[in-house]
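Z., the sequence and structure:
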Amino acid sequence: MKRCTRLVMALTGAGVAFASTAKAQKPPLLPEKDVAALANELSGETAKRNLEGIARFHRQRGSQGFHEAAELVAERARAYGLSEVAILQFPADGKIFYGTQRSRPAWDAEVGELSQISFESSRLCRDELEELHKKGIVGVAMVCLNVNLLASYEAMPIGLAEDSESAEVTADLADVGEGTKESDYAGKDVKAKIVLASAQPEAVQDLAVGKFGAVGIVSYAQNQKTAWWGEDENLIRWGHLETFSEHKTFGFMVSLRAARAMKERLARGEKIRLHAVVKAGKHPGNYEVVTATIPGADAKLKEEEIAFSCHLDHQRPGANDNATGCVTILEVARTLQKLISEGTLARPARTIRFIWPPEIEGTITLLNAKPEFAKRVKAVVHMDMVGGGPETKAVFHITRGPMSLPSFVHDVAWAFAEWVNEESYKFAATGKADYPMVAPEGGKEPLRAEYSPFTMGSDHDVYQDSSFGIPAIYLNDWPDRYIHTNFDTAANIDPTKLKRAAFIGAASGYFLALMTDAEMPKDRLPNLISILSEHRLTSYESLLHRCASLNAYDCGEMTRPFVDLEVAKVDSIKRFAEVPPNWRQMEWSHAHALEMQLLSGRSLRTELLMGDFRNIWKRKAEPRGPLAVFGYDYFAEHAKTVGVVTPKLLSYEGLWGAGEECAYEVLNFADGKRNAQEIRDAVSAEYGPVPLEMVVEYLKALEKIGVVEQVK
């Protein structure tokens, strides 16, 4: 642990230097008049009224509900005076590919009802028979049919699993436990029956329907498990079938309470008879993407864009996920357009674009089908779940980008978020603050946003994939006790939270749109450099904390890529404005000793590497996009075609990241400059030590499916 001990001393000394030289600016980066204009105009109430409109629609990709929501957004954008408002359409038929995304056909539903039926005597049945006897009709035998409605698409569309197909079936119910393993079906006859399973329908259908002959699925999958997931047994969670499975079927989602009651009855030997009626199915359609702009002022730089992104699709109501992100960037659009049009804010040099797509698959489709978008966008502000009130138990995050794409833009967002944290806490604690950012109909709690490491799971994955290399600020709530359930309603959304998220996004995007050589006066650039320096200290402390749990060897291997990251973050400013050499020198001078200390930890292993470990890898230009997309696994399908065994890395659990995240970054780091060892070291710095052999195995698998190549 000696190397880590030296790091402690170096970091401690650096911390003193940072603390003595950093000068906090409140508010940061933008003139206070601009900040005041944004804070005064942004309305959490306006955003929530728009949310209540969007949450009425069941917004599955390509569906009529999605189209109606898209029309609502487009109508609002036009009413707010935005330019180039359009609903772009891209064919989706299950055959067309957009980069690594196999287009999924549109899915619509008209009817979805699941009922429990029983044939038994009842008071109603006896009364009807007595009436017949009074009329002189005798010798009649009556069998009474009792019907108990368990799920209704019309009343609660979340109860019908996405990608269900039309059917009308009356069948017995069979409990198969989780339903994802053959052992779950041992000794059970499920042929021509409906199965009750705890797993998602997509994970069950190939076994239950394809192999064992079941005719449908009832699921009580408890997806998105958090500390609160088991507290309310009445929640019904969103379910989905496998889009491209050969074994077409239907699925219904029921609450944990309903499932337990059925399981107990089946365990006692009772028979449960169900009747399912479904009118639904996939069909060729379109991905629809709503877009609008605020044109830039500079004749040249207006061809560059700062984009605001969200995802419009989700089951009804889908309030926090993700009507909140959609209406918040709509509110940013309204506010910026109004303030710029009336001259309160200067029109920025760059164009500001707003994008409302289906999640992930819509974004990857847009960037592949219209590559000019990808070329123009310099940075993205992405919002996915930004309005959860106290009932949702949400924690608000400003999420950093992956280490493979170092950028200062995340620090810009955190500078504004940190300032909102301070102002909102001051107001909550004392009742006084210059900028409390409180909506009249919202709460008064402090924001308490977190600056969090990169995590996957939304459209920011696509933008920051090495195919596109667009840094994305990611604003998001997690955890959320009602995510993907029927309780994700507008009632749980806080207008104050919407206003604060809108401010952080608007201020960040506007600052980035303004950034030019001419718009970076002497006070603004030092302010940005100072913010980067302060945030570096936090990053170093995080590295130190992680390093303390490792041996000296692994600790040393993590330091070089970390330093490289910090250097590259400063250099990334050059994508927006020129950085005078003296500012970079000043920025690093007080940390020079620390930098040298870290660099002294470089390993000599690279010089001793043999064979595959020394090979340099480069990602090919096509296909573009991450390999883990939406409803389709590019790697799995192509690996199966060429006979590649699933690499161990994909199921690896690192100290701070899972296999999917490690694989995402291995591919991103394959830039034609790094060898396998250097790729492994970079991923280890981000997610903890990863076995070098796993990285090499994965790179070779990527080579076999044609995604990467070796640089000779």
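The chain has 22 helices and 20 strands. Confidence is low (pLDDT under 50) at residues 1-24, 589-608.

Let me know what you think.
H.
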